[in-house]
Structure formats: structure tokens, C-alpha cells
Amino acid sequence: MTKVPFLDLKSINAQYRAELVEACARVIDSGWYISGGELEQFEQDFATYCGSKCCIGVANGLDALVLVLRAWLELGKLSPGDEVIVPANTYIASILAISANGLTPILVEPDEKSYNLCPLKVEQAITGRTRAILPVHLYGQISDMPAILAIADAHGLLVLEDCAQAHGASIDGRKAGNWGHASGFSFYPGKNLGALGDAGAITTNDDELADTLKALRNYGSHEKYKNLFKGMNSRLDEMQAAMLGVKLKHLDRETQQRRSIAALYDQSIVNSNITLPYGAVAGAIENEAHVYHLYVIRTQKRDALQKHLHECGVQSLIHYPIPPHKQQAYSELSGERYPLTEAIHREVLSLPMSPVLNETDVNRVIAACNSFRP
Ligand SMILES: *Cc1c(COP(=O)(O)O)cnc(C)c1O
């Protein structure tokens, strides 16, 4: 019997093959491959999609976060050593962006139900050196942004959203990427809006920040051979911008397909050993707040469940097996204790989720979960 794949990227992109090939040919024939019309068009389209004033394409999602913090350092809004609050249970890139800039990551335990930043714990973590909050919309669910913005306003803090997993998630019609002072997106191929290579973007409503970022992604230069900053080379190339332009048109339909699959899992997986994902943040319309980048269940019998799913032909993955503070790269944090984060990392398991998962496969995943007897 064929396997139920976790994420079938080949089939996802095959749906748009003709459009992608056409866009690809257009770029080849243009003779212009970096910083041209394809990028400008995609930046406009993605800014419009998010409801933001500005979009700045960059090379990947990590660079998007690194560059925003770097720009705030250049603009004097941050200083080296300043504290940035970040969830302890995030993908490590969110934290790498903070330490790459000589800032201090302050890890905070998440909300147990949403796995996103808990406003109460954020407030408790604020000190005299806190200058920014970096909420991560983990697994595709937007964080409790109204509460986080209220705290940021009260304490004069900057907010940088990590939207790498949450393209299109919204609260009251306001999308991820349009809540904080700036946001970083990843278009890594496996993300909900995925390029055919590496790509990323920043959204913001702040023109001065946008201008600074446009220089920083291009050696620190606004104008050829004049350098205002010691910048980077982090550009979103014409080919990837063209691929993303094609795929953006289909994003909302794909998100609806993800939500339909999640609804089937929600309704039909019944097993006392398995905890299903909690819906949305309080006050949000549940359906809009989550774009199901991942469908993450929790179980104290994770190894046994993963083995059982594997025997049933269902591929599952763990996001993520080791918390950042237990990584060798962050040995300076290894003494810190985050019991909830550690439990989450021990117990989470991601079920197959993609816009091309068919009903037969969804039913096989459900049956495999329901037949699990540890
Ligand atoms: C994927 C991801 C990133 C990094 O994006 P890249 O494009 O791979 O650099 C950052 N944060 C989170 C939460 C992610 O999932």
C-alpha cells in the first residue's frame, strides 16, 4: 500500500506547473535576474495581501528577522545587549536572529493550549532592559496580538512578528504581518507560501524602516556605490519572486483546503491518548486565526504512536524534537528550566497536512490514530 506522505511538495507545485513554467520563461527571456520588475510586483502584491504599507523581499526567513533587528540597531531604536522576549518553544531561527545582532534573547514559556506567547508570562519577563517582543505564530496560529500589542504599548516595546508559519492567519480581519512594527516571513519551499528555493520578506507600515531595510539587504547601499551601512547581500531574486507571484494567487484556496483537513481531523480523531490542537486565541474567529501550516497533536506515548502510524503507512514528523535552550549552540542557556516547553518538545507530533492531501489519505490518518492502543 502507498504511504500517506507528510508533505508532498511535488504534487503541490505540479498543480501550477504551466503557470510556473510560463513565469520562469518570462524571467529567463527578460535578461534581468536580480532587483527588477518581478520583485517589485511581488512586493506590492504581498504587501496588499497582508494589508501592510511596505514589503521588502529578502533571501530567506532568518534574514528577514535578522535584518529588522539590525535596522532597529542602525536607527538607534535598539542597542547591543538589549533584551528581546521570545517564546522558549519556537523554531531556533527566531532566537538566532536575536543573538546574531548581539541582543539578548529572553525565553518565555508559552501558553499551554495555543503554544504561542502567553501575555501574562510576557509581562512578568519585562525588565529595565527589555526593548522588544518577538511573537512567533507557531504552527500557523496567530498569537494573541491584541494582548501583546497592549503590553508593548504600555511598556514602549517594539514588536517583531515571526510569520514564517502563518501566511494569511488573521484576527478580526487583520492579518499576521500587519500587527507588529515589522514582521518576518519565510517562503522556504515547505511553508504555506513556498518558493522553489530560498526566499523571505519583511512587512511593515514604517517607511523609514523600509528604506533602511532596502539598503541593508543590498550591502547597505541605497544608491549604487554609496554605502550608508555595513550591510548584507540578502535579496529575493527575480526567479523566486516570479514563482511566488504565481503561488500567492492560490494561497487562500490552499489555506481553505488545509482548514478542511484540520476540521476532519478535529471531528474524527478520537483517542484518549491523543490531545488535539486547541482552536484559536480568545476572541478570535477560530477559523481565521489558524492556517494549519502544521497539525500538531500531543501525546505522552509519542514514540509508540509514531511507530504505530509508521506501521499504518502514515508519515509523521516532530516539530521540534529539541528545545532551543537544550541545543549545543545555546549551551549558555542549558542550565535554564522551561518545564512546559520541555514537555511540549517531548510530546508533540505533526500529522500529514497539505493542500493536496486527498480524502482517502485523510481517512487513513484518522483510522491510524483511532486504532492506536499503547
Ligand atoms: C522556517 C522558519 C524560519 C526561518 O525561515 P528560513 O526561510 O528557513 O530561513 C524562522 N522562523 C520560523 C518559526 C520558521 O518556521
Automatic annotation (TrEMBL):
One of the entry's Gene Ontology molecular-function terms is: pyridoxal phosphate binding
Active-site residues? K191 (proton acceptor)
Q: Which GO terms describe its biological process?
A: polysaccharide biosynthetic process
PTM-bearing positions, type N6-(pyridoxal phosphate)lysine: K191
Family annotation (Gene3D superfamilies): Aspartate Aminotransferase, domain 1, Type I PLP-dependent aspartate aminotransferase-like (Major domain)
Q: Which UniProt keywords apply?
A: Pyridoxal phosphate
**Record CDD domains:** AHBA_syn
User: Pfam families, alphabetically?
Assistant: DegT_DnrJ_EryC1
Which family is this sequence assigned to?
Belongs to the DegT/DnrJ/EryC1 family.
- What's the protein name? dTDP-4-amino-4,6-dideoxygalactose transaminase
Q: What is the lineage of its organism?
A: Bacteria, Pseudomonadati, Pseudomonadota, Gammaproteobacteria, Pseudomonadales
